Amino acid sequence: MNLDLELVNKLKEQKILPIINSVNFKEDLLKLTSLLDTNKKIKIIEITLRESHSLENAIKLKKRFPNLIIGLGSIINKKQYEEVKNYNFSFFVSPGTIYEMINSKIENYIPGAETISEFNYLDNNEINIVKFFPATLSGGNLKLKSIENIYKNLMFIPTGGINKSNINSYINLKNVLCVGMSNIPDIIDFFNLQKHNENWFNSVY
Q1: How far is the C-alpha of 32 from the C-alpha of 122, rounded, in Å?
Q2: Which of 53, 58, 76, 105 is most buried (most C-beta within 10 Å)?
């Protein structure tokens, strides 16, 4: 398995992998604080390295929230991974498949993929956890459902275009570990609804 079992179990329980597309530290801090204030059960997030200061912001957030498990996203080649691997982040995510990283058997690396050929390659190289990206533009939940009995060892993290109106169509699939979402208000709404439903269930039963 390409991801530690503890991380897999936490993601499965959490259902959403919140993604902070880092722009500036103050904005990132505001997003993360509002998210954590809403749901204390959030243990894992991803911070993408899309801007020049994103890594610096991620390091600051890691220090500010020492109990939070943080992974780095938008890794686009092995060289970039080598530059960030010693900052003690917990996992690394790429938008596509970086074959050099897979050949190097790098631990806690989640490759991105969207095609059947990529799924087939990953399955044959003992990669179990895959980022399905961009999800809604690549066949969405119907694509994942169509292959669930073919690639039985693959578990997906659909990312890209996931929102509060379509999230359940993904997380109810047996080959979906969790979904990746960057829309913080939609994530908060989902957790609030989940909390409301739990409270209702407890009050009735």
Answers
A1: 32
A2: 58
At 147-199, the pLDDT tens digits run 999 999 999 999 999 999 999 999 999 999 999 999 999 999 998 887 756 65
Can you read off the two tokens belonging to residue 71?
């992974």
N residues, the chain: 205
pLDDT digits (tens, 9 = 90+) for 86-144: 999 999 999 999 999 999 999 999 999 999 999 999 999 999 999 999 999 999 999 99
- Kindly report the pTM of this predicted structure: 0.95
d(CA 157, CA 160): 10
The whole-number pLDDT of residue 181 equals 98
The encoded tokens of residue 147 equal: 């292959």
Written as six digits, the tokens of 81 are 């991974």
